[in-house]
Amino acid sequence: MDSRVRGWIASALDGSGWTADEIWQGILKGEFHLFVHPEGCMVGEFIVSPRHKVMHIFAAGGSLKAMSDLGPTIETFARMNGCDMTSATGRKGWLRYAKRHGYQPGDPVIWKEI
């Protein structure tokens, strides 16, 4: 993995319980999808429920420009793979940014190691 991409992923994972190596292994196995821009990257996965197939972004690091530029690419990728929704998990600070790009706030995510 390129050192810049590793750094962006590592910064996005801070406090999540994941490591950049675990994410990279998921990407290599095809479990996760990496979207790279010269100024940042995002990592996502498909989530399938009875009603929706979702491209869920769970790690994003780099500049806001990178996030804005990657949005349409991710949406196209999601549609081409049968998704009818995109979603993202992130720090509270992303909410204001996400609203400007058409996202609606949802329920907060909580987690517990077991």
Q: What does this molecule look like?
A:
It is a single chain. With 114 residues, the chain is of the alpha+beta class. The protein has one domain: Gcn5-related N-acetyltransferase (GNAT) (Aminopeptidase), CATH 3.40.630. It is 39% helix and 25% strand. A four-stranded mixed sheet has the order 1-2-3-4. Strand 3, helix 3 and strand 4 (85-88) form a beta-alpha-beta unit. It starts with a helix and ends in a 14-residue tail after the last helix. The model has no long low-confidence stretch (mean pLDDT 87).
What would you give as the CATH superfamily? Gcn5-related N-acetyltransferase (GNAT)
- The fold-level CATH name is Aminopeptidase
Largest sheet: 4 strands, mixed
CATH 2nd-level architecture:
3-Layer(aba) Sandwich
Pairing-aware structural class of the strands and helices? alpha+beta
Contiguous helical run count: 4
Low-pLDDT parts are none
Strand order of the largest sheet: 1-2-3-4
Strand fraction: 15-25%
Q: Tell how many strands the DSSP assignment holds.
A: 4
What would you call the shape?
Answer: globular
Give the count of structural domains: 1
